Amino acid sequence: MATSSNNSPALLAIAEVSKSFGPVAVLRSVSLQVAKGEVVTIIGPSGSGKTTLLRCVNFLESYDSGSIRIDGKEVGYRDSETRQRRSERDLAAMRAETGMVFQSFNLFPHLTAAGNIMLGLTKVRGKSNAEARSIAEHWLGRVGLAHKADSLPAELSGGQQQRVGIARAVAMEPKILLLDEITSALDPELVGEVLAVVKSLAEDGMTMVMVTHEMAFARDASSRIVFMADGGISAVGPPKEVLAAETTNERLRTFLARFRASHF
After folding, report:
1. For residues 231-261, b (16+ Cβ closer than 10 Å) or e, as one string?
2. β-pair partners for 73
3. What is the arithmetic mean of pLDDT over 60-85?
């Protein structure tokens, strides 16, 4: 059984995953294990495969070879050998176990903040409207937006919309939360409020895999940091080790140099 760095059984086990778009190899035999309660942050230059890897975990992108298992269950395919694609019903159920928060907020514009959260709870989890509303209100309170339950997305700031997106994902009680550059579309003054929510979830033991360019946040919130380059994992380890100024990894040192001025 695959294990994480702390020798606990891996909740997420990625083994030798490759993915190409036409002639371009985006992922090259990527292997990574994440234990329950870990926060693993993926960093790297644009085009290194970070977002594609997250999308493969949620099977928003199929992968050409290799295996991705969540809690021992193959994602996307019935098994990694036959590669028989799961039914859309099975895929929907599996995606519910991997909540994903995107760069763009992806809220339904005609639904209120509460309505956006309630939708998956009623349609996928089978909750009653009353129970879904109660859960939505709980999580809106948790992200500091209890007073915005009945507001439409257009009435919310970008930071507020992203916090609703996070609340929508965690309300489904996923086994893993995937966060893809969730602050990249925000004005700088709104970044902190979103990262504070993510940090509080990490402190509560939520298993997370996130892609970010917020190096100080990655250092402070992560169990481990993964550096990707050219479609593969070039370095992985504790934040102090990966982000060390004296790293001997030339690609990593070049990548980190652009962030040094921010004193992360």
Report:
1. bbbbbbeebeebbeeebeeebbeebbeebee
2. 70
3. 88
